[in-house]
Amino acid sequence: MLKTRFENYPKGKPFSAILGDLLGRGIFNVDGDLWRFQRKMASLELGRISIRSYAFEIVSFEIENRLIPLLSSVSDKEDIMLDLQDVFRRFSFDSICKFSFGLDPECLELTLPMSEFAISFDRASKLSAERAMTASPWIWKMKRVLNLGSEKQLSEAINMINTLAQEVIRQRRKMGFSNHKDLLSRFMGTVNDETYLRDIVISFLLAGRDTVASTLTSLFWLLANHPEVELAILAEADRVIGASLELTSLEQMRELHYLQATIYESMRLYPPIQIDSKFCLEDDVLPDGTSVKRGTRVTYHPYAMGRMEQIWGPDCLQFKPERWLKDGVFFQENPFKYPVFQAGLRVCLGKEMALVELKSVALSLLRRFHIKLAAPHQSHLRFSPGLTASLRGGLPVLIRDRRTPS
Ligand code: HEM
């Protein structure tokens, strides 16, 4: 594993460069000491029980009041296809905005236009990924100096993101923040620096939106192709929760071991962040003796690692939630073998919140609806360029209410 000296970015690296490094983290667009301080604060806030219950409250509200009504409105209509990926992206954007800033962009109201914030993020993410794939860095660097083509568009998207993030902070200030439970209000109680707060806003949106939507999209595609796994999830829910379809409590969600195993297994095959890089701040030596010079980019590949026979055995390409269960109880594989949430010093700070969100959505939708792929014979998923995995062409599905007699 990389030593801690491999911090993320050289001092003063611009946000565009951070986006270009495959997972944005504006919080850490800073030198090592400040990064450690900020990460510590974020980790203290996200570690609180109160914030987890707050996350559960928000997610439950979004599911009951927006997601389920939306799916119900198209259920049993054989001529209406729904792009589940688009729905999940809207859902996760609304949820992360409410959780992080206490503001509601209402993206899940399909009749309303998608938020300009979300559109700018998508544009910046796509352009950054395309930049990372250019044959030589000189091409994009030259375009950036001349402010041309894709670099001009990227800089416009980033300016828009920065302006909107500042607007979020202004609104939060105007509405008052002392009695609010969202993350930004908690930070505003102790920090007054505008740039720091702006970076927090951007970091949480980048970290918590597309990752969740991407996981849900692949999960539902896998479940549509593995009805036996779907049945096992439903049987576990009936056993643990009983007949009530309402989401009950965080404690009860934790008892859904098979569901958790299914989510982990789905992310093993389809990690939302397929590839991740770090830059080396000083000359260093990896544990296997490989020497790495200052400035080298070191990349690891969770997508490839999840499919390696040396790591997962001869059935590595099969979707088998059981590999995560010991006597029916979920057990965590070594995080260095499964770096879907990173590991060690840099492990995802929102992991617990993400799991609550993923389990809640999966459970609520599976228990109410039968979700059928509109193109059932697609044997593998195809991705578009972006910082987070997203399906080319979305995930068109047909929805059927489970209570409707067949
Ligand atoms: C399935 C969902 C998610 C996955 C797979 C995921 C994965 C990751 C990964 C791989 C990193 C490490 C990036 C790096 O430094 O190399 C990370 C960092 C982070 N994640 Fe998540 N994440 C998810 C959801 C969330 C959510 C919902 C939140 C917010 C509530 C969040 C907040 C963060 C933050 C703040 C960091 C920065 C930590 C740091 O760089 O030190 N994540 N995440």
Automatic annotation (TrEMBL):
Q: Which residues bind heme?
A: 348
**Alphabetical UniProt keywords:** Heme, Iron, Metal-binding, Oxidoreductase
Question: InterPro entries from the entry?
Answer: Cyt_P450, Cyt_P450_E_grp-I, Cyt_P450_sf
Which top-level group of life is the source organism from?
Eukaryota
List, in alphabetical order, the Gene Ontology terms for molecular function in this entry: heme binding; iron ion binding; monooxygenase activity; oxidoreductase activity, acting on paired donors, with incorporation or reduction of molecular oxygen
Q: Which cofactor does it need?
A: heme
Family from the record: Belongs to the cytochrome P450 family.
What the entry lists under PANTHER family is as follows: CYTOCHROME P450
Name the chain's protein: Cytochrome P450
> What is the scientific name of the source organism?
Camellia sinensis
